[in-house]
Write a structure and sequence with these properties.
alpha/beta, Collagenase (Catalytic Domain), 6-stranded mixed sheet, 6 strands, globular, binds zinc ion
């Protein structure tokens, strides 16, 4: 499996990883297997990297995600108290493109199904190519896997081969997708929490958000 993934790795994917190291989105790469550039043309104030393990955490996106979730919870509580809450007419659809992460394709689709089964206000739908707002990439990066974006169904998820050989890859995919849905890292929480990520160690394989995490996503997308 590991060997297969490495042979699938392309120069373009490695380039994407190298560029990600510098913290900047990569420019389009020429070549037969070149992926398109990550979705965000330029970092915004809120965008940043949220990683699977604590050593790679970017405190800025962590703070932005924590703040946005806290605000959403306060607003939901206010709506509940005043009866001002309007029903959610339909789930917000996030189109995702996993065409640049071929060795994780089925895991990415499983992760989407896991989230879709547990949240009501947002739905992940595969749409490879130009229509995909959330992109998945694969390659090698010393920081491991991460999400880059604002946590609003935007940006991209990078899957690192070496980390996916040590930690459960489906849990990594679902965790990073949790960031794309707006959840921050909580590395000190137990394995039963998806957003504890690599905190509980490689033996933790749970790919499911718990009911609190799912409820937080619904609060963010209500
Ligand atoms: Zn994380």
């Amino acid at each position: 499996m590991a060997t297969l993934r490495r042979t699938i790795a392309t120069g373009a994917a490695a380039l994407a990883g190298a560029a990600a190291l510098s913290g900047a989105p990569v420019a389009p790469v020429a070549g037969p297997v070149a992926p398109s550039a990550p979705a965000l043309a330029a970092p915004t104030a809120q965008a940043g990297h949220a990683a699977y393990t604590e050593g790679s955490l970017d405190p800025r996106i962590q703070a932005a995600l924590e703040q946005r979730l806290a605000e959403a919870k306060r607003e939901a509580a206010r709506e509940a108290a005043t009866g001002a809450k309007k029903p959610v007419a339909a789930a917000t659809v996030i189109y995702y493109d996993d065409s640049q992460a071929p060795s994780f394709d089925s895991l990415i689709d499983q992760s989407a199904a896991i989230w879709n089964a547990r949240v009501a206000n947002v739905k992940l739908v595969e749409k490879d190519g130009a229509g995909g707002a959330l992109k998945y990439y694969e390659g090698n990066d010393t920081r491991g896997s991460y999400y880059y974006g604002r946590g609003q169904g935007d940006g991209y998820i990078f899957m690192d081969y070496a980390q996916a050989d040590v930690y459960a890859p489906l849990r990594i995919v679902a965790h990073e997708t949790g960031h794309a849905l707006g959840l921050p890292d909580r590395y000190t929480q137990p394995c039963s929490k998806l957003m504890s990520g690599g905190g509980p160690g490689p033996s933790c394989t749970n790919p499911y958000p718990d009911s609190v995490e799912a409820s937080e996503v619904d609060t963010l997308w209500r």
